[in-house]
Write a structure and sequence with these properties.
single chain; about 240 residues; mainly alpha; Tetracycline Repressor, domain 2
Length: about 240
């Protein structure tokens, strides 16, 4: 979620608020990309993993301090203790290194390696979130506030960042919800794609628009008041024969 918590996965739906064209435009609202057609980017080239991490961490530090529009590749290289040539071999532009830094930052907020199994869906969904430190959460908000023209002038990279950020979370949530259907905790007709869309949309709104933390308490409220009650309702056929 792109947030103090995280920021698509194969079940997301196209947003009606915007369309990604890969071109420069002034829209501030992004459609959540459909990961069935857009695959998340890997974090840099497969070289020295520790060097990649140092560069991506440096990118986040510079973003938090001065923002995307004032950031330069020289500043990132200096902060990471790397040569410019090393940086450009991995990422040809600052937009590309920012994209991968955002994906890496958000993946530190969710548990993607081990699927929780608490016995009920609510606790499973909450267990996916890692408890961030206060310092980490505050830096995330500063990074998001400093993105500036990245979302409008580098639209394709921004959409790729959204896909890379949300894909693991939606995939895990989908699996947890399907498992809840199998143990009859949810009805067979539960609208899993819509539930995932609501989680991502409201998380993005809270963190990217309101610039508020998305913590465990916020997520629990979202689940209790919207997601879980909605999943308990059988999905209706919009075009009955």
């Amino acid at each position: 979620m792109m947030s103090a918590g995280t920021i698509g996965m194969g079940t997301t739906r196209k947003s009606t608020t915007g369309t990604s064209t890969g071109k420069k435009d002034g829209a501030n609202t992004a459609a959540i990309p459909d990961s069935a057609t857009v695959q998340p980017k890997t974090l840099g080239r497969k070289r020295d993993a520790s060097r990649n991490k140092a560069i991506l961490d440096a990118t986040l530090e510079v973003l938090a301090e001065i923002g995307f529009d004032s950031m330069t590749m020289d500043l990132v290289a200096a902060r990471a203790g790397a040569g410019k040539a090393t940086l450009y071999r991995r990422w040809p532009s600052k937009g590309e290194v920012v994209r991968d830094a955002l994906i890496g930052m958000s993946r530190n907020s969710i548990e993607v390696d081990h699927l929780p199994d608490t016995g009920n869906l609510r606790d499973d969904l909450l267990a996916v979130m890692k408890p961030p430190s206060l310092e980490y959460s505050e830096r995330k908000l500063r990074v998001l506030a400093g993105l500036g023209s990245f979302s409008t002038q580098h639209r394709k990279l921004y959409d790729e960042a959204l896909t890379g950020i949300f894909e693991p979370w939606i995939r895990i949530n989908t699996e947890l919800m399907q498992r809840a259907i199998e143990r009859r905790e949810l009805p067979a007709g539960a609208d899993i794609p819509l539930a995932c869309e609501i989680i991502i949309s409201l998380t993005t709104f809270r963190t990217s628009t309101q610039l508020k933390k998305f913590d465990r308490a916020s997520y629990a409220a979202l689940l209790d008041h919207f997601v879980l009650p909605g999943l308990a309702i059988e999905r209706r056929n919009p075009n009955p024969s």
